Amino acid sequence: MTVCKYMSTRWGLRYLTEWHLKITQPSDFNDPFELKSPSQTIFSSENISKLFDEMAYGMALEEIAKVVQQRIGLPVQPVFAKEIAAAIVTGPTSLNSIEFVARLSALPGFSKQGFEALSSVLSKAWPALLENARDMCQKARPAFNAHLERSFADTIPAMLGVLCLSRNLNQPLMWAHYADCHRGLMIEFDTSHSAFNKRRSEVDEFGFLREVRYTDVRPALNYDAISGDQGFQTFALTKSNHWSYEEEMRLVWPLEQAEKKVEIPNGHISLIPFPPESVVSVTLGCKALEATKTTLVQVLSAQKNCDHIQVRQARLHDTEFAFVYDPIDR
User: What residue segments make up the domains of the chain, in order of their start?
Assistant: First the structure.
């Protein structure tokens, strides 16, 4: 499969000499909704127990473990104390508890009678400890939601850069909006090249091309989306149908891992490499200046590993709202 990037003459020619593409922060996009899914309802009171039950269990278990360390009469490490606490709360007849009693019995100074008495007391205290921990989690929910909302609205987008490409190599609106009103370039890429496959593991969300989904309904970033592995799709790969003409593919990459940074008057831009071997063709817009064509041919002739790159000129189709791409000799 191939994808393309519509570019101004300046940035297109710069890419063809330096072989790095800009990854843009969402705050610099012309779509103000980028990476700003509504997140106020991430954790509702209905699903709070799904997320926090395990946390509450762990908090209550920590309290049991503290008592175990203080009263068991043995030098017990915190991790082991927590394992003993887990055995206690499962009940004296559970296999887990019986196994722990057997292990502890081998230790000098262990009192089975004392341990059973302690277990009885802690088992009775367990429901109240667990309920208290759940109550603390519920009270923390508004602050937790607010923190996550700020993270999804500001912190996370500021850490990410996005490379935007298109599946449509013959889109007049893309030429107009992104290629300097048809005076710029369109660069076609081979997506099988390793530059488009930087994914480090099967669960890595970064470093490979993803298709953008378009919708009329702004999706909320809620617990169901996150728990169903749809969080990244909702957050970073969903746009309004107004933008569907772009047929966008995007590669998301952490800004801190960008290979190159270029200083500009108001800060810097981040770049990642896409070598000449990843390029299939370069097409000049139908309004491109003759000087641009001359410079393009000179630039590619002076670069290594560029002989395979086709150079073309767009012209208006005779009968359709489309372009014909004529080859240019070089």
Answer: 2-42+161-327, 48-151
Count of other CB atoms within 10 angstroms of residue 165: 23
Q: In this structure, what are the phi and psi dihedrals at residue 259, rounded to the nearest 5 degrees?
A: -75, -30
**Residues 318, 279, 185: CA angle, nearest 5 degrees:** 45
- Roughly how many angstroms between the first and final C-alpha of the chain, as a whole number? 26
For residue 165, give the H/E element and its range: strand 160-166
Question: Which residues have a Cβ under 8 Å from the Cβ of 158 and sit 6 or more positions away?
Answer: 25, 27
Residues 146-175: tens digit of each pLDDT: 776 676 667 777 888 999 999 999 999 999
Give the helix/strand (H/E) hosting 132: helix 112-150
For residue 26, the tally of other CB atoms under 10 A from its CB is 19
How is residue 72 annotated by DSSP?
S
Cβ 119 vs Cβ 91: under 8 Å? no
Closest CA to 209 of 194, 187, 191, 193: 191
pLDDT of the residue at 84: 72
Please give the Cα distance from 61 to 132 (Å, whole number). Answer: 12
Q: How far apart are CA 29 and CA 241, in angstroms?
A: 16
